Amino acid sequence: MTVSRIRNGVILLSVGVVLLLNNLDYVDWSVWVSILSLWPVLLIAIGIEKIFAKTPLSFLSYLSPVLLLLAILGPAYYYYNYEEKAAPSGKTFRWEKEMTLPVRKGYASIDFKAGRLKVDAGKDKLILANFDYWRREPLCIYNYSDKDSSVRLEIKDLDHFWRGWFKPGFMNRHEWDLFLSEKIPWDLKIENAAMSGDLNLSELILENLSIDSDASRLKIKLGDKAKNLKAKIDSDASKLELLIPKGVGLHIENRASLSSTDFEDISINHQKKIYWTSNYDSAPLKIDISLRGGISGLKVIGY
After folding, report:
1. Higher confidence at residue 131 or residue 30?
2. Among positive and negative, which fits the CA dihedral 115, 218, 40, 8?
3. What does pLDDT average to over the chain?
4. CB atoms within 10 A of CB 156
């Protein structure tokens, strides 16, 4: 058996073990940020194979799969065993904007690298945000347009996570809580590398939602405040839970590589890659969802 064959087998086996631990909730999906940060180990492993293969020291080439095994399973083991009491104290930052000007539409863009993200509706302010961060506080930008009375909010994560990924309790410390005004229509865009997301968007007048994420666990509660909500979710190696209000017309176009689907308290028709409720055409309120990427599990719950 060749070293390259063992190496490829170790990669598949290790990735499968970590994904299984993710699905069973033993290890947070954010572990993939730590694993992917170790990608140079792959080059080192292949280099060892090339140097020592077909030489009197060929036995050293078997260090290649061992290194890869440690690089993939090591962070997973660490995340599973870290102690909450060892979590270092983090820094906090608060950002808020009042509704001082007439606003007809809001556009919010959130670039979040890793950790836990919570989004909910707020009452009095345009936005209220509380951030836990490692080194650098997030970049928060506010722009108001007199032309169409719209606001654009941009929040960008500037932390250098390689300094904190392997600190025990880090993921508990890097948490963002955002509250957007429930009084105006919103287009919301979220990009992230790895996160645990709790997005309660049910009280927002949400017209468009775009999520681009990797190795994440997302719980998204949608509402019926907008006449037609259009959502695009592009996610890889993730678990997605959608809460949908009963009575709205739901249409899901699935172009993701789903490994499992589960529908609770909602009646769904299914044909090829399309899921829809029987009342979709006649419902006054509609939700259209487009799924992309390699979502490992989809759960839809009616409420």
Report:
1. 131
2. positive
3. 88
4. 14
For residue 34, give every residue at least 6 positions away whose Cβ sits within 8 Å of its Cβ, in sequence order, or none. Answer: 75, 78, 79, 165, 166
Q: What is the pLDDT of residues 48-81, one digit of tens each?
A: 988 988 888 888 888 999 999 999 999 888 877 7
3-class secondary-structure state, position 55 = coil
Whole-angstrom Cα distance, residue 119 to residue 84? 24
N- to C-terminal Cα separation, the chain: 54
**What is the reported pLDDT for 170?**
47
H helices, E strands: number in the chain: 5, 17
Q: Are 104 and 148 in contact (CB under 8 A)?
A: yes
The CB density around residue 218, as the number of other CB atoms within 10 Å, is 23
Give CA–CA dist 234/236, Å, rounded: 7
Distance (Å, whole) CA 18 – CA 57 = 32
Between the alpha carbon of residue 212 and those of residues 50, 170, 202, the distances in Å are 37, 23, 20
Q: Which helix (H) or strand (E) holds 128?
A: strand 125-133
Q: Helix, strand or coil for residue 91?
A: strand
Q: Strand pairing partners for 230?
A: 208, 288
